[in-house]
Design a protein that fits this description.
Structural class of chain A: alpha/beta
Strand content of chain A: 15-25%
Largest interface: A-B, 40 and 39 residues
Order of helices and strands of chain A: EHEHEHEHEHH
Shape of chain A: globular
Largest sheet of chain A: 5 strands, parallel
Oligomer: homooctamer
Number of strands of chain A: 5
Chain lengths: 165, 165, 165, 165, 165, 165, 165, 165
């Protein structure tokens, strides 16, 4: 099935974080492609990934990178598809560099930035589903169901804590 | 015409920043509604704005707030529509508090965060258009045109700088 | 016995920190309830916890959360009881995000914020006791006794260090 | 009438911030005393202010200071009354130094810290009222009324913003 | 005369900072070209500027940008010429975002980063001259002379301060 | 022999850091006393330690503490002896809180602050010796000798590195 | 009269801050010399200032600098006299760079660091006097008197604030 | 063969980081010398290393240091050769102190700063090669080849990630 979401990361060492995104998309049965492209080490590959994405049927691109994390911005430079950026905490600065390099985009070229690391990678997947659901009522219903489940899980956790003596 | 984007801000003092969002939506002829709701001072109003948005025809919510900026997160808690968060630099910490309070959402509840202040407000508008364009080819074309124009403007600016002696 | 303090945390994974609060309240024989509610995953549960607290006899609410820690602020939005916020260092930013998201509340909706992590959780318990002691002279005396004991413990520790060669 | 709240600040130059606290207390008709004491320049005065407060009838102490803001902690060292700390942004670090020096108290000696600067000073006043209201139902009702008014004001502000074209 | 240094900036609004670089190069009679290219708004222009630079005779590229400052990194991605990055403090974060986005490059793609703002822009010029002087003894001598002059100016300034009463 | 330097720390858990200070003083045969006093848990003990120090023959006080590290400032409040502050990285903020709380003293009450943790503790000892050496030529000579030794050790280390292949 | 304190600053533009130090020394009738030397622009001058200071009769060196403030460290490298460092907030980072570059000295080479900017400059003067007073009882008495006066001034300020309605 | 690059580090404990630089230079067959010199513990050795470098045939100096990392700046003070600074994360502040102390150089004395820690050390080597390649076409070709290889490696990594299920 044609991929609707493109996941791209700066290095294969980021896979441990970005597979959280993949898991979410699998859960929602969203076909996706996942690869490596570096804004700095393979700029043409990165540019092509972004500039051909729309024609490949991609609707949303999710880019995860650490350090001076330019990957999401590089995607945004080459396409008008919505780009989601996941800052990864792989440097000495625990992701502050990646967060600022991802979120502080200049006017005209937005990147939808999520939290640093695994929590952000998971949310990137959900955010992509939310975008796709804007024109897919079945997906939208599934999101609603999962929101209800999520609240239910909080109640389960609450019981554990309430049992604490 | 029915609003497709909801812009909400924590206080009317945030209008100076958030009107940048409104300008973008006007440029793209996207009908929008814009109001004030505070996650802390009027939590019910905020919750209702978010939980009724889908039925009102809203597709994307853009929330701008400063300080411990919970407004975008509060929207995300009450709806599965995509939420865009604009951190506003109205406190002593120049927006670092607003940025972290907006972007560092826990897994399950994403907020698409953009840059601090006016650049972010403008990008929030474009990001919303990008989401709507996923199912609106005319809008998608318009985004492409604007991207071309934007690159052209860079060339104009380049001429000014090249003339510098 | 009717609970006088409500302890709420964003996830059961925060229990390792928040049990420090529980220990303090037990030491002072303050009846308390402890549960999980998430400002983002179960906003209604969180809102109800806060808005019904006064009628349940709760005097003080203590909320512990990490990341974009909105839980204490969400409590403060729904009640006029004093709210104590414990920022938890569970993200890549070691609690700086949680601290700013908890303490930087806008005018009108205070959160009494304590230190990040376990030291803060313990102090949250003591601060709650101090508030209750305003109308309970026996409790006030007990706080004084403990303050004297605490100073005495410093002298014990001093002896250990003075013995260092 | 006997003061119930003690406001203390590190220097008279902090009055511009701390009068926000005074205004709140006046609004609620809470008698208060307000003075200057420095943890570093007049430590005995500071210690006496705190250690005699309870006998003077003071229920809550609010301390505002900038730089390495030790004043609130110094109050907490000398009394078991609840202490509210207001970090003031009077140094080159815009209040980050004052925030960390106020909130990061060691276990055993809590300071209820509020936001940096004027928003925090206002909230310090409300927090003090919330503590006093625990044993004063009339005050508790007044807090509820003000919370309703505050939400109403948000609606007024909303109208202004909704009128924006 | 053929340009030996390429100065590129993200926007014409950065000229106020980057003309400090130009002044240094003029002082050393280094022919240079100066233009605008945005890594995000005109990525192809930016890529071409870098990838054709060597053939145009350029030896060193100096890139100045603010916010999520990717321009220097984008240059480095397309050429093996040495790239000097000048972080510009044009955002709410006073250049911390630009500094981290410029300096924290991943292994394989260096950017020689200098200080934030005007002092960095001036040093970027000197650093470029130092690189060119490696194969130009006349230029090397001129750098030595200027170093001597600089020390002499310190002595002049010293006299002013020594005259202070 | 009468102690000339007073080492004080906020808790016996700081001994692992502060024994670095003690080792330096032993090396220089400076008699010292070392104890625990907390600015927050035993303020009177802390105040007395400082205010009686001069009469006990103490010339310099070295205070090490973590979190909202007020101990050095509390010493400085009670004596005109020079106070050296060692910020200890025992909180979630890795010593940034302790550094700012120690160094950002208001005008009139200086604290001579050294680096965070063990390097600072060692330097605190040397700084104290430097102060004592102002009126003790033998000690001054010993400092000079150690400076020469320190440079010699660098040469030894250099040999190791030079042997690296 | 032979200077006992050497004040050195990185540039004459730092005089506005460092004259606060001079004022304190004048008040205490401490003869001092004041000049400019840059660790980077005139390293030999800086090294000579430090290495000859002891023989010139200097007892304490006070060094003020901004940016990557190496001046105090450069002094400490060339002498065993106590060095006081004043970080100056003249860069985009408001003195955080100067503070860290001054205080984070490696083991063996201490710098007694004070607060950023004018408050620190004033405290640098007092700290120098405290060091000199270790062997000068008259100076020690004067420090005590000033400490008493300082506390008295707090009481004056207190009266102003107490008069606030 | 005569060394063309000088690698200097503040302590032998920095070798684990700086050998990344050495590996790069070996790969490119650039003869180099590597030693230890401390700006603070052996300032004369450091000054001599820098001031004699040009006559020894050195073209580029690479300096790695942690804490208040003055080593690169000290090199820059004594020579007009290009200096590359590698901030090392050996303190409690994870390299933020070293980064700011290295990069925030005052006008007139540039340091080409790279990323914190090992990624920066590797890039320092490449940057040095880029400078040498300005007058060495063989070296320039080798850099181009490696850039192509680097992009090829990204494609290998991409295959691994694309195989992820």
């Amino acid at each position: 099935m044609e991929a609707k979401v493109g996941i791209v990361m700066g290095s294969d060492s980021d896979l441990g974080v970005m597979e959280e995104t993949a898991k979410v998309l699998k859960k929602y049965n969203i076909p996706f492609e996942m690869t490596v492209a570096s804004a700095h080490r393979s700029p043409k590959r990165a540019g092509e990934f972004a500039s051909t994405a729309k024609n490949r049927g991609i609707k949303v691109i999710i880019a995860g990178a650490g350090h001076a994390a330019h990957l999401a911005g590089a995607m945004a430079a080459y396409t008008t598809l919505p780009i989601i950026g996941v800052p990864i905490d792989s440097s000495a600065f625990q992701g502050l560099d990646a967060l600022l390099a991802t979120v502080q985009m200049p006017p005209g070229v937005p990147v939808a930035t999520v939290a640093v690391g695994k929590p952000g990678a998971r949310n990137a997947g959900i955010l992509a589903v939310q975008m796709l659901a804007l024109s897919d009522p079945v997906l939208a219903d599934k999101l609603e169901e999962n929101k209800v489940e999520m609240a239910a899980k909080v109640e389960e956790k609450a019981k554990k804590v309430e049992a604490y003596q």
